[in-house]
Amino acid sequence: MLTEDTGSTAGAGPDLRHHGDAEVRDDGAGLADLAVNVRADTPPGWLREEIAASLSSLAAYPDGRAARAAVAARHGLPARRVLLTAGAAEAFVLLARALEVRRPVVVHPQFTEPEAALRDAGHSVDRVLLREADGFRLDPAAVPEEADLVVVGNPTNPTSVLHPAGVLARLARPGRTLVVDEAFMDAVPGERESLAGRTDVPGLVVLRSLTKTWGLAGLRIGYVLAAPGTIAELERAQPLWPVSTPALAAARACVAPRALAEAAHAAHRISADRAHLVAGLGAFAGRGVRVVGPAQGPFLLVRMAGAEGVRRRLRELGYAVRRGDTFPGLGADWVRVAVRDRATADGFLRALSAALA
After folding, report:
1. What is the rounded distance in angstroms from the CA atom of residue 128 to the CA atom of residue 134?
2. What pLDDT is attached to residue 10?
3. Who is most buried in 173, 175, 265, 272, counting CB within 10 A?
C-alpha cells in the first residue's frame, strides 16, 4: 500500500526519532535489554585490544585508506566503491543531502532514520506500507515506477523479514537509486540474499553497519557500497576526517578473516537462540501473542493485545522491549524483542507470562 507524504518528523504520526536505546536509558539502565539489537557480550576482548592499540595514534589525523581497502577486499570490490561512515545513520544523512532526488519512497515498516533524514533535508517522502496479511513481504509492483530513490531494509528492522535478493534487484531501474540497508545481514547465516559486492544492479547502494554484531554502537562505524560516482558524491558531502582512528582500527579488524569466521559462528548461534525464543512465544498463542515469521534477523516482531500495558509490566519485572508504534505501518499492539541467550530468553518468557496475566 502506498501512502503519500505525511508531514515532518515533528508532526503528527509515528515518532521517527524514537529508537530502542530510549527504552534502556535513565530509569531503564538496570533492565535486561531486549530493546536494542546490538549483540550481547560484545565487543570481544581481541577487538577491544585492537581498538585500544590505536589510541597511541590519536595525535595524528585519521587516515582511512587501509580500512577502506580492507572493506573493499572483504566484498571483492575496488576501494573506489567503498565509503566509510560514522555508522549507517550517517550514510542516510549523506544520501538525503548529496543526491538529487525528486520522489523518494521508503518501504515500511523499517528502520525510521532514512525517512527522518530525507525529511530533514527537505524532501517529501512517500511510504510503501507492507501488510501483516502478506507477512510484511515486498511486492516490487507496489513501488511506484516514478520513484527515483527507494529505501528498503534486508533483513528488515523490525519485521525480521529477509527479502530474496532477486526480488530486491527487480526494484532497480535506470535513473533510480536503490538503497538496501543490510545493517543486520551479517547476523544471517551465509549472508544469503545479500546484494553486497554486486556490480550488475544499476543504481544499487548497499549500507552496512559494524555496530550490531560487534557491539560498537558507541564507536560509530559503518560503510557504503555503491558505484564510484555515487561514492564520490557522498564523500563530497562528508566533513573532513569523518571516521575516527579507533573506528578505522575497528573496521579493519572486523573484516579480517578471524572476525568473519567469528561472525559466521555467531550468526548460527543467533539462529538457534531465535528458534528457542520463537518456540517459547508460541506457547502464548492462546493468549493472543503472534510472532511474525519466518524471522531471519536477530530480533522478532511480536503482536499482542494491550502491548503498551504488557511492556510497562515487563519493565516492572526487569525487562525492556522495544515499542512498535513508532514504526510506520504498525500500531500500539506491536513490540520488537531482541534475540538473546537462552537463559535470558527463559527469564523473559517467565516475565511475559506474568505480564500477560
Report:
1. 13
2. 43
3. 173
- pLDDT at position 323 over 50: yes
Of 139, 155, 158, 156, nearest to 191 by C-alpha is 155
Q: What is the mean pLDDT of residues 28-38?
A: 95
Residue 103: exposure state from Cβ atoms within 10 A (0-12, 13-18, ≥19): middle
Q: How many CB atoms are located within 10 Å of the residue 160 CB?
A: 24
Averaged pLDDT of the chain: 96
**What mean pLDDT do residues 184-212 have?**
98
Residues of the chain with CATH 3.40.640.10: 45-256
225: helix, strand or coil: strand
CATH superfamily of 14-41+260-356: Aspartate Aminotransferase, domain 1 (3.90.1150.10)
Pinpoint the residues of the chain covered by CATH 3.90.1150.10: 14-41+260-356
Beta strands 177-181 and 204-209 are parallel
CB 337 within 8 Å of CB 277: yes
The pLDDT score that the predictor gives to residue 87 is 94
Q: 123-154 pLDDT, tens per residue?
A: 999 999 999 999 999 999 999 999 999 999 99
Q: How many angstroms separate the CA atoms of 43 and 250, rounded?
A: 10
Q: What angle do CA 160, 340, 352 make, to 5 degrees?
A: 90
Fold of 45-256: Aspartate Aminotransferase; domain 2 (3.40.640)
